[in-house]
Design a protein that fits this description.
The protein is α/β, with parallel strands linked by helices and about 150 residues long. The longest helix is centred in the N-terminal third of the chain and has 12 residues. It binds adenosine-5'-diphosphate and magnesium ion.
């Protein structure tokens, strides 16, 4: 899937939010400026979070929480240097809280991801083009991709 500007990336996030259910986990991979945070704003919008454009990467805290149709738990591992820094905040505790968990730079600490999650890979194709690829880990996400994200 290709987006050609920021608003299309937000729309894609919003659309995917409509497919999600409580407890879902999304791992976002992509270089700085790929659009991970932009995509997360779209998810927030789709979940009915107030002022979704205020969603911003957690910088001084590991996780930010937003109330919506389901709560959004937004993690960013960018500034985390080793797993022990994350472990004491244990993202695992958020996996069964009944919200939607979105993790930027998730691939840095794969061992902290749950068994099943939706991997969203964003590639920068040009200044304004972003290619989205989806990889399902676990039956639920494989089904979701083959039904809606092909
Ligand atoms: P990340 O969280 O991956 O570092 P951000 O979402 O914070 O990335 O930033 C993405 C940047 O790329 C923004 O400055 C945005 O304006 C720009 N951009 C250009 N084209 C797109 C696109 N198609 N989708 C998303 N962002 C885009
Ligand atoms: Mg970001």
């Amino acid at each position: 899937m290709l987006t050609t500007d920021m608003s299309q990336t937000k729309d894609l996030g919003r659309k995917i939010a409509g497919l999600l259910k409580p407890g879902d986990v999304l791992a976002l991979t992509g270089d700085l400026g790929a659009g991970k945070t932009t995509f997360t704003k779209g998810i927030a919008k789709g979940l009915g979070v107030d002022n979704p454009d205020y969603v911003n990467s957690p910088t001084f805290v590991l996780v930010k929480e937003y109330a919506g149709r389901a709560n959004l738990y937004h993690f960013d591992f960018y500034r985390i240097n080793n797993a022990s820094e994350v472990e004491y905040l244990s993202p695992q505790e958020y996996y069964d809280k009944g919200g939607i968990v979105v993790i930027e730079w998730a691939e840095k600490f794969k061992e902290l991801l749950p068994d099943e999650y939706l991997h969203v890979i964003i590639n920068i194709k040009s200044e304004k083009e972003r290619e989205f690829k989806f990889k399902g880990h676990g039956k639920r996400y494989l089904n979701l991709i083959s039904r809606y994200l092909k």
